[in-house]
Amino acid sequence: MPYKKLIDGFHLFQKEYTSSEKGAYYKKLIGREQKPETLVIACSDSRIDPAILTHSDPGEFFGIRNVAALVPPYNNAGLLRGTSSAIEYAVRHLEIKHIVILGHEGCGGVNALATGNYQATSNHNYQFLHHWLDIGAKAKEEVSHKLHDAQDEVKTRALEQATILVSMENLLSFPWIKDKCDREELQIHGWYFDKSEGQLLEYNAKNELFEKVGDSEAAPFFLKDKPNLNTFLKNYMQNCACRTKS
């Protein structure tokens, strides 16, 4: 998208928000403190906008976007604090009630993790990607070990979903998040957007699989123990086999 389109878009925004019902909503919104109940941690991919996917208006959720929607562990030697500081603000100051990890099909970051195409080479002198994507190294190892005979597309999809589980696990390593989950004051959700099919899948901790989001609101679920990657991958492969047979 040309840079000029961004400027033109702002002028349209300015006109809309000064002379319409949306303008009144926006002025009311900026006149008070933000009070979102949900934190969405999504990928930086330009094709995946969580506000558009959820038809959300400004002020309805607090957002973090980074490469592959990854969450670093609480204790990471001080290397990866940008996402952590935003999570801390959302949980400890805004006191949000839900955290959503939003990964997606066709994630370039996860593909780089899968292929190793994020290390410094003669053609690409990456300085930061290897530190960041290594957050998902555990998921890569498990997928490579458990699904070594599977087709590449099957393994890639599994890794895209497995990194979401790693991020959910890492959230629980933050003591003040774990405490809120244990006291059932905070819910953690894993979402996977299949952009090719236009489907949204949510991690079902009971079945340990990503399943289509239902039309009705599910009973509240409070994640208190980290997801089991081994069980997830086993169920994932069984589910793939069932779909192939059908």
Task: Give a brief outline of the structure.
With 246 residues, the chain is α/β, with parallel strands linked by helices. The chain contains 10 helices and 6 strands, in the order ααβαβαβαααααβββα.
Account of the protein in words:
By secondary structure, the protein is of the alpha/beta class. The chain is 44% helix and 15% strand. It has helices at 3-16, 21-30, 50-53, 82-93, 108-115, 129-133, 137-146, 152-171, 175-182, 229-245; strands spanning 38-43, 62-66, 98-104, 187-194, 199-204, 209-212.
Helix and strand layout, with pairings?
Elements: H1 3-16, H2 21-30, E1 38-43, H3 50-53, E2 62-66, H4 82-93, E3 98-104, H5 108-115, H6 129-133, H7 137-146, H8 152-171, H9 175-182, E4 187-194, E5 199-204, E6 209-212, H10 229-245
Parallel strand pairs: 1-2, 1-3, 3-4
Antiparallel strand pairs: 4-5, 5-6
Helix pairs in contact: 7-8, 7-10, 8-10
